[in-house]
Structures are given as C-alpha cells and as structure tokens.
Amino acid sequence: MNDKYVFDTSALLTYIKDEEGAETIADLLGKALDGEISIFISIITALEFFSASVKKEGWAVAKERLELMEDLPLTQEPLIPDLRKTIGEMQFKIIDEMTAVKRLPFADSCIAGLAKSKNAILVHKDRHFQSVEDEIEQLPLPYHEYV
C-alpha cells in the first residue's frame, strides 16, 4: 500500500460537506493522524478550497473551513521551481518539439504535478484527472462537478 496521498480540492470539499466519499477521506485522515500515511495538498488546493467556499457559502463559512483545514493532518506544499517541468507535463501532452495539446486546467496540473513528484496517490472527484490516469495512481471518489 502506498503511504503517500495528495488531496485535490474536491476531496477536501467532499469531506467538509459530508458528501458521498467522505468516509474514505475520513479513513485516510485517521491513518495520517496515526502516522501510517502522509497526505499532501498543493498551495493551489488551499486557494481553491477557500475560493470555492467563499463563492458558494460566503466569507464567514470560508474562514471557518480554512481554520478546519489547518487542523487536518495535511502537509501543504508550495509551488517550487523543481515542479515547473512536471506541472507543464501534466498540463500539456507533448506531441513533438513544436506541438503540445492542453489536457488539464492549470490548477489541476499543479495538483497532479505534486502527486507525480511525490509518487503519491491522487484522491479526487474530478473527471479532468482521467487524462493522466496512466501516469498517476488515483483514488477517484464518486464524481461531482464543482464550480
């Protein structure tokens, strides 16, 4: 069993909103508290989590959720120069030296890039990540569209 996980924003929202799949997140968080696994999030995840909460629930709820997130056993990772190439490879499929096709939105490519760099399992509810399922081990939760 892999002992490293990366949570996408959708995984955190699933847990906070107690949606289908929240029990999986709770189990992983419990294992992280027990020191059995490590869970990472990108700074992009933290920003998206706060932004989505403000948009859907308002400023007060977003601030409460951010405080709750800070209490979870998550290691927040910054965007560091070493990740640039990996993030680019996640965002674009390279056809040849002159051609690349976009396959992931920027935020998702940052999160996928973190998972790839950590050799971690990506936990999410986001169909976008299907485009990189052959490159990153994934634990997809029941899908839900977050806007």
TrEMBL record:
Needed co-factor(s): Mg(2+)
Instruction: Look up the coiled coil feature and give its residue ranges.
Output: none
Q: Name one GO molecular function term.
A: nuclease activity
List, for all copies, the residue spans of the domain called PIN. 5-133
Specify whether Hydrolase is a keyword of the entry: yes
**SUPFAM superfamilies for the chain:** PIN domain-like
Q: Which UniProt keywords apply?
A: Hydrolase, Magnesium, Metal-binding, Nuclease, Toxin-antitoxin system
Q: Which family does it belong to?
A: Belongs to the PINc/VapC protein family.
Q: Which PANTHER family match?
A: RIBONUCLEASE VAPC2
Q: What is this protein called?
A: Predicted nucleic acid-binding protein, contains PIN domain
Native organism? Candidatus Kentrum sp. SD
